[in-house]
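ok new one. same drill as before - structure tokens go in, u give me an amino acid for every spot. 163 of them this time. try not to just spam alanines like last time pls lmao
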């Protein structure tokens, strides 16, 4: 009886597991994004997309998309990081853009950066970090307003591994 119960229980769990996998589906969105998608940031019902043609966002989990009011033109967005209502976007030639309203309005924020080719961004304990292509790692202690170099003792190729 015990052996039968174990087999039945395992079979039932496997059935449920595979049922969920088979029923999982992906749906293409009607995004207005042109070009390659390089980065995604999602929180609550908001999804922000960084692409070769700029920044786009959705406030309804990707059902519809809009371009921000101050979408920087012709920028290639490589990465995002978020801390509270502040979102920063790293670009592959124009440095960092900052939004203090969760991504609707954007402004350039390159004070202190000596390299504007941003590869990766992250945040830890209210400190933003940016890994650049030529000049290493920079940090911002003021929520992305200004940047200081912060890579003493790190090999120049290491910013690729900032995460």
């Amino acid at each position: 009886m015990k052996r039968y119960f174990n087999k039945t229980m395992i079979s039932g769990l496997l059935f449920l597991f595979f049922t969920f996998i088979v029923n999982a589906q992906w749906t293409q969105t009607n995004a207005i994004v042109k070009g390659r998608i390089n980065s995604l940031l999602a929180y609550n019902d908001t999804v922000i997309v960084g692409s070769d043609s700029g920044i786009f966002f959705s406030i309804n989990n990707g059902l519809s998309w809009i371009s921000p009011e101050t979408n920087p033109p012709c920028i290639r967005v490589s990465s995002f990081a978020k801390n509270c209502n502040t979102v920063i976007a790293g670009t592959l030639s124009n440095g960092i853009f900052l939004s203090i309203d969760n991504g609707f309005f954007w402004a350039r924020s390159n004070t202190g950066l000596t390299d504007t080719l941003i590869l990766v961004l992250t945040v830890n304990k209210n400190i933003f970090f940016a890994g650049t292509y030529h000049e290493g790692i920079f940090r911002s202690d003021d929520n992305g307003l200004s940047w200081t170099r912060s890579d003493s003792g790190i090999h120049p190729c290491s910013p690729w591994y900032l995460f």
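The radius of gyration is 21 Å. and btw The mean pLDDT is 81.
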